[in-house]
Amino acid sequence: MDFNMKKLASDAGIFFTRAVQFTEEKFGQAEKTELDAHFENLLARADSTKNWTEKILRQTEVLLQPNPSARVEEFLYEKLDRKVPSRVTNGELLAQYMAEAASELGPTTPYGKTLIKVAEAEKRLGAAERDFIHTASINFLTPLRNFLEGDWKTISKERRLLQNRRLDLDACKARLKKAKAAEAKAACEGDTVPDFQETRPRNYILSASASALWNDEVDKSEQELRVAQTEFDRQAEVTRLLLEGISSTHVNHLRCLHEFVESQTTYYAQCYRHMLDLQKQLGSSQGAIFPGTFVGTTEPASPPLSSTSPTTTAATMPVEPSAAGLAPPAEAALCLEEVAPPASGTRKARVLYDYEAADSSELALLADELITVYSLPGMDPDWLIGERGNKKGKVPVTYLELLS
């Protein structure tokens, strides 16, 4: 216990001495060993990497989990080294509510059937979101956390050690400087009793003349300075190697960033396909309920390829309802060569994406081209008749941007 108390008192004394020395350096009252410019640049680069990594990590966590309470819960589970329980995504929860509503309101009604279709799509969206979060956490968040909790802590520890070595080195330089000044003064004044108050304890044993004592003091200070300089150089080299490793960290984070973008691209592509399928299903269902009308959506599934495209407006293209409703399957087939465009109701449309015709009744499309479109009685509302020059065929509405 006595030994521990002595060590504690010694450490406290060293800490206080270094704190005073550090404060004097800040006010320019003490000598400070400056690091070279390259080393300072490495330190600044490391600090910048650490700060931006923390910001990117926090914002990515917000992107993957917008609920702050859920993030706190996941953080506590991680600190307690326990597995985070599986959580239902918002899309899956919405799908559950819609399915229950359809079951209670009537699954055979038009509203119930639509609820079931939307619920299935939302469930697929929720599953895609779950896969994206899992992939992004492993391939992107985990490497960032490993850097902050592993490599950066090691760098911080070695930097603190280097700071202490520098303070010790500067203290030795100051002690040697004072000893040499006192030695020169003693040589001029003769054999007077030296005052070691600033360099040695008061109980230091005096011997011989003042000049000899100061000479001995200078020798000891020089020896301490050499030892401090060696320790400082060794620690500076260790810290430099760790700081230069930041370049490898950047390369690793670059690879992780590519993987994050790939997973996000896959996620949004899945969402687009699921919603496109849902849109087609809802369009077919709507056509069965309201066979005499076509409501064309002009809201593109993704931003237009050209930033100068005309303003898109919601449009409804009324078609005269057939007297007998939907035509029988045998009569529903249209001979496109014999179809004439209506006198009114045609309009221009911009093609959003390339489309390959599935058969001879469809018209192949190229992105950004302009075509003329119109609807015919009894047609599936998901499709329009498109004309380009002397070519004519059915085209999907979701691939078009109707122009006003």
Description:
The structure is a single chain. This protein is an alpha+beta fold and 404 residues long. The protein folds into 2 domains: 12-266, Arfaptin homology (AH) domain/BAR domain (Substrate Binding Domain Of Dnak, Chain:A, Domain 2, Up-down Bundle), CATH 1.20.1270.60; 292-402, SH3 Domains (SH3 type barrels), CATH 2.30.30.40. 60% of the residues lie in helices and 7% in strands. Strands 6-5-4-3-7 form a 5-stranded antiparallel sheet, with no helix packed on it. Strands 1-2 form a two-stranded antiparallel ribbon.
Fold blueprint:
Elements: H1 2-26, H2 37-64, H3 68-79, H4 90-105, H5 110-189, H6 210-244, H7 246-289, E1 295-296, E2 315-316, H8 329-332, E3 347-351, E4 370-374, E5 383-388, E6 391-396, E7 400-402
Antiparallel strand pairs: 1-2, 3-4, 3-7, 4-5, 5-6
Helix pairs in contact: 2-5, 4-5, 5-6, 5-7
InterPro entries: AH/BAR_dom_sf, BAR_dom, Endophilin_B2_SH3, Endophilin_SH3RF, SH3-like_dom_sf, SH3_domain
Keywords: Coiled coil, Cytoplasm, SH3 domain
Organism: Molossus molossus (Pallas' mastiff bat)
Which keywords apply here?
elongated; 60% helix; alpha+beta; 2 domains; two-stranded antiparallel sheet; SH3 type barrels; 7 strands; Substrate Binding Domain Of Dnak, Chain:A, Domain 2
